[in-house]
Amino acid sequence: MPNIKSAKKQMRQNAKRRMRNRMVRAKTRTFIRKANDTIAAGDQSAAVEAVQAAMSQLDRAAQKGVVHPNNADRRKSRLAKKLAALKQAA
After folding, report:
1. In this structure, what CATH number is given to the domain that contains residue 50?
2. How far apart are CA 58 and CA 31, in angstroms?
3. Which helix (H) or strand (E) holds 74?
């Protein structure tokens, strides 16, 4: 436990940021999971909407610094590839 005033404040700030980051990360994972599930189910129109929502959420997470921009782009690319494979199969 810190004794210095500025260190105490830094701990409070870190706790707030950690909670905010956890919420954004969890929401992003949920959107990605939903997109993958709809792709696996084979529902093309629902999959397109779910992938768009997941990509948007990934962009938000990258913008807020929760995930690295390259990480977000890589995940978006993987989703797009899965969606393209679904469209190709149909």
Report:
1. 1.20.58.110
2. 9
3. helix 69-89
